[in-house]
What does this fold into?
Amino acid sequence: IVLYGVAQERREKMLLFVLSLPVSTRQHTTAKVVAAGIAFVVPWLVLTVATFVVIRGTALPDGLLPFWMTVLAYLLLYFCALLALALVKDGTGWHVAGITSGNISVNFVIPFLLAMPSIAAHIEGPHAVWTADVLALIAAEVVLGPIVLACAVRRHARRADFV
It folds into this structure.
C-alpha cells in the first residue's frame, strides 16, 4: 500500500500529472494518505475484530486478548510510521530500510510483550486482564501512529520540490 500508493509516485512521474490538476499540494497529500489509510485500516479493523471474536468465542484462553491487541496496535503504528517515512523521504533505500526494520522489529516486540509480567502472568488465564501498563502501551501505539503520520503529512504538504 505504501510503496505503490506513495513511494513510486515520483519514480513513475504521476506527480507531474496530479500537480497539473486544480488541487493543492495539501489536498493531494491528504487524499493520498486517506486512501492508503482506508486500504490498510479497514482490513486491520476486520482482523482486529476477528481476533477478538475468535479468542472470545473459542476455547482459546481469553488471557491472550491483551497480548494480541497490543501486537495489532503495534502493526497500526508500524503502518503509520512507514507511510510517514514514504512521505518524508524519496529514496528507495529509505523505504527498504523502513520496511526491513519494521518487519524485523516484530521479532523483538513479540518476545518483549510475552516477557512483560502483566501479560505473562495472565496469558493462559480464562479472563482477559487489562493492566495499566498494557492499556498504556496500546494507547501509546494507537495515538503515536497518527501523530507521526500527521507530522509527516504537514511536512510533505509544505515541500517546495515535488518533482
The first helix runs from residue 2 to 11. The mean pLDDT is 88. The helical segments are 2-11, 14-19, 25-57, 64-88, 92-115, 117-120, 132-157.
